Target: Retinol dehydrogenase 14
Amino acid sequence: MWFFWLLIALIVIKTYNKITNGKCYADNVMSGKVVIVTGGNSGIGYETALELARRGAKVILGCRDEKRGQKAADSIVKKTKNRSVRYMHLDLSSFASIRKFVEDFKSSEAKLDILINNAGASGVHRDRTEDGLIRDMQVNYFGPFLLTILLTPLLKKSAPSRVIIVTSTLHRFGTISDLNNPHSFIRTYCDSKLCNILFSNELARRLEDTGVSVNSLHPGHVNTSFYKATILEKLRTMIFYTFFKNPIEGAQTSLYLAISDDCDETTGGYFVDCKPGYMGMKARNEDLAAKLWDMSEQMVGLKPEETI
Ligand SMILES: NC(=O)c1ccc[n+]([C@@H]2O[C@H](COP(=O)([O-])OP(=O)(O)OC[C@H]3O[C@@H](n4cnc5c(N)ncnc54)[C@H](OP(=O)(O)O)[C@@H]3O)[C@@H](O)[C@H]2O)c1
Model:
């Protein structure tokens, strides 16, 4: 009997979650737009890229693994009949790879309308990258920082253009006090997500009046392969299915920020379920954001002529 009531409770929760999930209702066509989606080969990134391609955008999937990236691009082309979808190699754990990606992108595309910093990692928090940084920190924050700064001149030239940064509600538990030492995977993740949102806010301030908008978002708790690397994998059961969004639902806020006319004039915002969300106190601290920016420029080895 208890199983019956448990099942009913799970169905009620799932139905409630479905009803309250934010949805992107914008019906804009995206033909003529050039979009980069990092980590576009799986989960939220794949669904974001798929929907943008369906609406006619030229979509570049920035992925670290050629096989997975190419497979995702082929699958999107097949599903949407949009042939302007391609994979380009981008390993966010390597500054050399990021610089090469930007050079290759600039030599093949004359403009960039939307940059979606979606890729993220969790669980490789003790490894160091070839650049000497903690791997998760570099993939989640320092890499996207460098990528975005290097693409900013092109974004400005292509204005109105948009930068979208996928962060997490867990930014509330982050700190920026010790970013280059190993911590638990959850601490590193929270720190990196606080950095994402501080960066988003500071970039929005620096790009005010340039026509480049910058917003961050929490996609919700989404049942993707993201949890593979952690002990949470073992919990990917009916409970996950019940409480978590599916990847299509998880992509809605990224799509809303990329597509909707409502976001034309919006910058420096943080969104959850396609509407403004509540930023943690540290995320709203402008001094902290400026301090992080200076630290980040040094850690990614930004050249003086590249600063913005
Ligand atoms: N799922 C959630 O509940 C949740 C909640 C809050 C925020 N988020 C954020 O949402 C974003 C997307 O995550 P997801 O849930 O869709 O997980 P996912 O399916 O695991 O996607 C993560 C993507 O990032 C890519 N990636 C990992 N390391 C990379 C690297 N070094 N260089 C380039 N790309 C790399 C992965 O590529 P590979 O396939 O090659 O590994 C994959 O395409 C992340 O930023 C995550 O922090 C997710």
